[in-house]
Amino acid sequence: GIEAFLIELAALVATAVTAVSIGLLLSTVMKSSEAAMALTPIALIPQIVLGGLLVPATTIPQLSALMYVVPARWGFEAAVIPERMAIADDPAWLIKLGTDQSSATDYVIHGEFQCATAQLASDSLNGAWGFTSYETMWLPYAVLAAMSVVVLVFILVLLKRRDRI
Question: Up-side HSE of residue 158: CA atoms within 13 Å toward CB?
């Protein structure tokens, strides 16, 4: 409904603001627009690769620490958490294991494997996204806001040093 739309919209806006901030930083640091355009792919490719969808954190654990500084990863987390949590109790996403056992670390509750939650939160299942802080839905927004503020303050400092008026 409208609530889900607004949550997704907020995630996209927060990610876009952070991306624009990084673009402004590139423009501020470079002397010419040609140099800034040449650096654009160098700035974008890590966003795509380390964003979390193409290369999940559990696939190459050595990259997971680097993923925390990539804004695309936080934008992806902010967008996907509400979606996965909305379908977490859907019977299509619950796999019956034929037992009544429960194991919270394995995402098994009353003999059902919680597929949506496991894909979202597991840091041990290969191919899972590793968003272990998924229950704190505000965290990706806070991280994106902090990244934007840090980058914008850095831009202000650079511009102030460049143009001493």
Answer: 14
Residue 117 lies in a domain: no
The SS3 call for residue 35 is helix
Q: pLDDT (tens digit, 9 = 90+) per residue, 77-91? A: 999 999 999 999 999
| Adjacent-strand bridge partners of 108 | 103, 113
Strands 94-96 and 108-109, how do they pair? unpaired
φ, ψ of residue 43 in degrees (nearest 5): -80, -30
In a domain? residue 94: no
The residue range of the domain holding 54 is 2-87+134-162
Q: Is 123 part of a structural domain of the chain?
A: no
- CA–CA separation, 59 vs 112, rounded Å? 24
DSSP letter assigned to residue 113: E
Residue range 121-146, pLDDT digits in tens: 998 888 899 898 888 999 999 999 99
User: How high is the pLDDT of residue 49?
Assistant: 92
